[in-house]
Design a protein that fits this description.
Elements lengths: L1 H20 L12 H18 L1 H6 L1 H11 L6 H9 L1 H5 L2 H23 L7 E3 L10 E9 L5 E11 L2 E9 L2 E2 H16 L1 H15 L1 H8 L1
């Protein structure tokens, strides 16, 4: 009898195995889809630039504040910074990580905002989405024309988070911000150390935003 029971239990386990171990479908990501999010954020950024282009070009602090307000809530700063640091993230202290995230994002948002000054909202085209709607990562492709009509590909990399889809990289004309920063920082960190890189980024950020630096000093 005991052997019969064990046989039946084993058979039930085998039959029920697939159902027990099957992975459940990932829960739906809250908020807009990657395509919808990029379209909304890009449109808002370009319209804000159109409305005040001359002033934004003259005032880096104002430009950065505009990018922070529109893009940063939809950007996964920590994930992006971790990819940029690569192996150096594991050995960085909590304080170094925090300072690097702040300094790196400051630099990235500043450069991205400056790049956007060349474009206008009526020249942006959303290209068809090619990704898997059920995936947890996505690339959204757009095309923006310069004044001379030259099309410029601007692609956004996103990942699903509990808070919704978040961008973590921007690629303009085939140049990825994250990959570019990672290559530059890796060599500099190996030569000078992480603290030196953080200090350089912080100094550049302070110099580019004199109004904010003055306010902190006061």
């Amino acid at each position: 009898m005991r052997s019969l029971i064990l046989t039946l239990v084993a058979a039930a386990s085998t039959l029920g195995g697939p159902a027990v171990h099957a992975q459940a479908a990932p829960p739906p990501v809250p908020g807009p889809s990657p395509q919808q999010l990029v379209e909304q954020v890009s449109t808002d950024l370009l319209k804000a630039i159109d409305a005040d282009r001359a002033a934004l070009a003259k005032d880096p602090a104002k430009l950065r504040a505009m990018v922070d307000r529109i893009l940063l809530p939809n950007f996964d700063a920590e994930y992006s910074a971790r990819l940029v640091l690569g192996k150096h993230w594991r050995t960085a202290t909590p304080d170094q990580r925090k300072r690097f995230i702040d300094a790196f994002i400051n630099s990235m948002m500043r450069q991205y905002g400056t790049a956007l000054l060349d474009f206008t909202s009526n020249r942006m085209t959303m290209l068809p989405f090619r990704g898997d709607a059920a995936a947890t990562s996505a690339t959204v492709r757009t095309e923006i024309k310069r004044d001379d009509g030259t099309p410029v590909p601007v692609n956004y990399s996103l990942r699903a988070t509990p808070q919704g889809w978040k961008a973590w990289d921007v690629t303009i004309e085939g140049v990825s911000y994250v990959k570019n920063f990672r290559t530059d920082f890796s060599a500099e960190i190996e030569a000078k150390g992480l603290d030196a890189v953080i200090q350089r980024l912080e100094s550049q950020g302070a110099a580019a935003t004199p109004a904010k630096a003055a306010a902190k000093a006061g």
